[in-house]
Specification:
Layout: H1 2-30, H2 33-40, H3 42-45, H4 56-66, E1 70-76, E2 85-91, E3 107-110, E4 117-121, H5 133-143, E5 148-149, E6 152-153, H6 154-177, H7 196-210, H8 212-237, H9 258-278, E7 285-291, E8 296-301, E9 317-321, E10 327-331, H10 338-344, H11 346-351, H12 356-409
Antiparallel strand pairs: 1-2, 1-7, 2-3, 3-4, 5-6, 7-8, 8-9, 9-10
Helix pairs in contact: 1-5, 1-6, 1-12, 6-8, 7-12
């Protein structure tokens, strides 16, 4: 049985090593994506002028008026003092072709006091420029920039399958790390003084043991981040009733026209505070997310700048029918079935934000450790592969005279 587990561990590890190396290093960086992006690009995040900010709807309207090809898909409803008003945009449909306009950007930073555009970029573009570096690493972490073909997002599926292989390998690894009760101390030790292969082996085995719980959490949540709808929600629903996914609940009626969308956005922003209080949400409306294909808007409730959620299970979200203003779905942290709470915990656990600053530090450290485990695993395999080849050549050399004598005798 152990021989089979060793082979499984070897091939699962080799099959996922390159992916986990990339995911570990990029994950260690993007645990601090907001801070690093702002430090690298102060002109994109710091407002040029002081003064009271204009209303969020006014800023969005000015942006859309400046470029009628673009429509705001996400915007904050308040901004931190001294910060820019950063929105996401998507192209409108060209009425002459029925296809989306070609936009060279999908994120815009505006001076909130004047409405002047301070910067534009294509968030997630494959570029190592200062303006695009952190979004590029974020996108690389989740998708590897693999294409979407015949309706299949190969990046999402690849990382999801890697997560499943990693989760299985984690259980195999912990069994192999403790072959018997007498040798348990060896599985926790690092032979630093010996160095060389002994230390490489200990970094891989003992490092994995010390971090085993964290590694398992990241492996599980990586499946949820990529294949939540396809895999995780169906599996969880076998054990617990789940509320509808608030971002995939279709509202009735055809898609909104541009005029209808603008009017609906104004109505929903005006009603958001009252709707939040009615749902028992203490935080103010913090962001508006447009879902035009579903004739709906999502409102997130959080203080300015806290769109990721600083701690706990994240921010509350309500999804409203754009035509009627009716709440058609809700995701309120801490409410719902056991399955709902499990689903709510996935991103906060994966990002470490469930534990605030200490959690993010732990996730960043673990990301580096994942890269280290991938490298040490490859080094161990290479050394053992060389030893197997050397042994095979020796056996062949020793067997050759015997075969020669047997042929002579025959």
């Amino acid at each position: 049985m152990r021989a089979l587990l060793v082979r499984l561990h070897r091939w699962l590890g080799l099959g996922t090593a390159a992916f986990l190396f990339l995911a570990g290093l990029t994950g260690a960086v993007i645990a601090w994506d907001h801070e690093l992006d702002a430090a690298l690009n102060p002109s994109f995040y710091r407002a040029s002028t002081a003064g009271a900010p204009l209303p969020a709807l006014t800023l969005a309207q000015r942006l859309e008026a400046a470029d009628p090809r673009a429509q705001v898909s996400y915007m904050p409803l308040s901004v931190e003092p001294g910060h820019t008003f950063v929105v996401r945009v998507e192209p409108r449909l060209d009425p002459s072709t029925g296809e989306p306009f070609a936009l060279a950007y999908n994120q815009v930073a505006m001076d909130p006091a004047t409405g002047v555009i301070q910067g534009r970029r294509m968030w997630g573009a494959p570029s190592l420029s200062r303006l695009n570096l952190i979004p590029f690493l974020y996108q690389l972490h989740y998708t590897l920039f693999l294409p979407t073909k015949v309706g299949i997002d190969f990046g999402v599926w690849t990382m999801g399958i890697v997560g499943m292989a990693w989760l299985l390998d984690g259980f195999i690894a912990i069994v192999l790390a403790f072959p018997n009760l007498k040798s348990w101390r060896k599985s926790l030790a690092f032979r630093v003084k010996r160095g060389g292969y002994a230390l490489t082996f200990d970094l891989h085995r003992s490092g994995g043991v010390w971090l085993w719980g964290l590694l398992l959490v990241i492996a599980l949540t990586s499946i949820s981040m990529n294949l939540g709808t396809q895999v995780v929600r169906p599996v969880v629903s076998l054990f617990s009733t789940l509320a509808p996914d608030p971002f995939r609940t279709a509202a009735p009626g055809p898609a909104l026209t541009a005029a209808e969308a603008a009017a609906a956005r104004t109505r929903i922003v005006a009603a958001a505070s009252a709707l939040g209080r009615r749902e028992g949400i203490a935080a103010p409306p913090g962001g508006l997310f447009a879902m035009p294909a579903l004739s709906a808007y999502g409102v997130g409730y959080y203080a300015a700048g806290n769109d990721h959620g600083d701690a706990g299970l994240g921010n509350p979200w309500l999804v409203m029918n754009a035509r009627t203003g009716e709440v058609i779905a809700r995701q309120i942290p801490g409410r719902g079935s056991a399955g709902d709470l499990f689903i709510q915990a996935q991103f906060p656990l994966h990002s470490g934000r469930i534990a605030g600053l200490p959690g993010r530090i732990a996730i960043s450290f673990t990301g580096v450790a994942v890269a280290m485990l991938s490298v040490t695993g490859m080094l161990i395999w290479l050394k053992k592969a060389r030893a197997r080849r050397k042994s095979a050549r020796k056996d062949e050399t020793e067997a050759r005279p015997v075969r020669t004598r047997e042929r002579a005798a025959g």
